[in-house]
Amino acid sequence: MGMEKGKGKRKGGGRVLIVDDDPLVRGVLSDIFYNVGGYKTDVAADGFDGIEKIKNNEYDIVFADMAMPRLNGMDFLREIKKINPSMPVVITTGIPSIDMAVNAIKEGAQDFITKPFRIDTVISIADRITGEKKLLNKLAVKDDYEASVGELKAELFKKLQEIGILQSISTELDGLCDNKEIFERIVAMASKLFMVKEASFGAIENGHLKIKGSIGTMVKDISIANSIFENVIKKKTFCLASLGEVNPHNGTLLTSPFLSVPLTMNNEVFGILNLSNKADGTAFTDDEIRFALTFAEKAAMRIENNALYEVFYTNLMNTLKSLVISIEARDPYTKHHSERVSLYSLQIADVINLGAEDKDAIKFGGYLHDIGKIGVRDTVLVKPGMLTPEETTEIRLHPVIGYNILEPLRFFPNEMDIIRHHHERFDGSGYPDGLACDKIPLIARIAAVADTYDAMTSSRPYRNAMCHDAAIKELKRCSSSQLEDEIVLAFLQTPAGKGGARLSLERTTH
Ligand SMILES: [Fe+2]
User: Fold this and answer.
1) How much distance in Å is there from the Cα of 338 to the middle of ligand 1?
2) d(C-alpha 43, C-alpha 271), whole Å
3) CA-CA distance, 494 to 353, in Å (whole number)?
4) How far is ligand 1, taken at its centre, from the CA of residue 323, in Å?
5) Residues in a beta bridge with 114
6) How many Å lie between the centroid of ligand 1 and the Cα of residue 405?
7) What are phi and psi for residue 339, nearest 5 degrees?
8) CA distance 443 to 303
9) Dihedral (C-alpha) 417, 421, 425, 428: value to the nearest 10 degrees?
């Protein structure tokens, strides 16, 4: 039984099992449950330990970490459900996402919470779950049967509706990366879920609610001053306008209540969802308002994820692009080389009909292919003359250096094939891994042809640029040894291979 703590201070607590590989988290949660919630607690350091404890003890709730070694939270959840299908499990996670929440709920989790934990959230979830459990137990007592069934039905209904909201938000918004689409979808879903004839979503910008999507109403941007929105922003919660007040959508008098709920990011209201004109003509119930707040919260989470991802991705792309520019600035002979390799590779991809995903990888990967040169000394990189064997070894490190720069980012898995393998040779005599034939990723074989052609037709300090015809002759000579002949043949059919495309990009004429 081990580490169980004693009786809690509050009356009516149950027994909680905390499963987390981090002793600090176990300690914090244990303290919260015991000292604040009045629960008895027990801890397990991983899923297997947790399973053993569940087999041998009685618990009211299990709080399990999502990311654990040996048995992760989802597998642990499945195992628990095999032993005791009605055991309430709450999943804890450091990375909140609606997908994770929905998956956990689909697998039978009761709820999920994100780290760092808020004491009141942890306790209220535990209290709610033990409350529901008591309600279920009451069902067994005949006297209270009718009342209990009624209460239980109402609880179940609320729960189902909330889970429904979570699931529909996830499925509806999945795969949408464009904010405009997300806003429009949020409005459409809200009008369906809350059965209103009028709905709008607006973002707060310069004292106005900039309408990003609306249904059932032709609504333009609305000034926030002295409107219902001012209150929503100030109070950071919903506001209701009643019959006879002004409809913010169109300035007429309201004939049915108008509900505004905030969408927040970092505790600041950034958008407002408006619902009005319920199809059945009734007022909004407390439950509906609560659902509207949950809906807005989940939608805000999705928008925030999207915004963070976009900002992060754009920043990252820009940083990498400036790195490439800085490398090319060190070596004026290679100015625009990366752009041209990207362009020629894309032209080859067109000829051989590659799919969109490969083309994306080629476009950015072609641009980044020499990014590892950032780790090569200037004296070697721009040396006028032939390189010594040591210098050759140093410059040949650049594919691996580039790979090592990008690998931890985990953002460009396909692009990395080009970065690492653009100097592999079809006959296996290239570097860094000596791969041959189709062991070399296709997009790297393509980039190799583009890179070779551009290198030959660019000037170097120690030699002049080859003319197009001579370079093509050389490419054909290297077919099947250094380069794949089919890719060379494809290159010959591209605008660049026909000698035309170079005009479109500036070249240095040293
Ligand atoms: Fe290279």
Assistant:
1) 9
2) 41
3) 12
4) 15
5) 93
6) 15
7) -60, -40
8) 34
9) -90
Distance CA 163, CA 508 (A): 61
d(CA 339, CA 324): 10
CA distance 173 to 185: 7
Distance 337 CA to ligand 1 centre (A): 10
**How high is the pLDDT of residue 142?**
43
pLDDT at 131: 74
Distance between Cα 496 and ligand 1 center (Å) = 19
Span from the CA of 489 to the centroid of ligand 1 (angstroms): 22
Helix axes of 98-106 and 145-173: crossing angle, nearest 10 degrees: 140
The CATH architecture that domain 15-168 belongs to is 3-Layer(aba) Sandwich (3.40)
Cα 423 to averaged position of ligand 1 atoms, centre (Å): 6
d(CA 315, ligand 1 centre) in Å: 24
Q: Average pLDDT by consecutive 10-residue portion of the chain (510 residues)?
A: 42 83 88 88 94 93 89 89 84 69 70 75 81 60 52 55 56 60 84 87 90 86 90 93 87 89 87 90 86 85 71 69 78 82 96 94 92 82 85 91 76 89 96 96 97 90 85 93 96 91 44
Q: How much distance in Å is there from the Cα of 395 to the middle of ligand 1?
A: 9
Distance from CA of residue 330 to its chain's centroid? 36
CA of 326 to the centre of ligand 1 (A): 15
Measured N-to-C along each axis, helices 286-330 and 98-106 cross at an angle, to the nearest 10 degrees, of 130
Answer CATH for 331-504 from 1.10.10.10, 3.90.800.10, 1.10.3210.10, 1.25.40.10: 1.10.3210.10
**How many A from CA of 312 to the centre of ligand 1?**
27
Q: How far is the CA of 317 from the centre of ligand 1 (A)?
A: 19
Do 441 and 479 meet the contact criterion of CB atoms below 8 Å apart? no
Q: Where are the domains of the chain?
A: 15-168, 179-306, 331-504
Amino acid at position 435, single letter: L
Give the distance (Å) from ligand 1 centre to CA of residue 422: 6
**3-state SS, residue 48:** helix
Residues lining ion ligand 1 (Cβ < 5 A) are 370
Report the amino acid identity of residue 211: I
Sequence-distant (≥ 6) Cβ neighbours of residue 389 within 8 angstroms: none
Q: How far is the CA of 447 from the centre of ligand 1 (A)?
A: 10
Residue 205's SS3 state is strand
Q: Which residue has tokens 């494809």?
A: 490
Spatial CA neighbour of 131 closest among 31, 13, 6: 13
Encoded tokens for 333: 């002979």
Residue 84 neighbours by CB distance under 10 Å: 14
Superfamily of structural domain 179-306 = GAF domain (3.30.450.40)
CA 366 to ligand 1 center in whole angstroms: 10
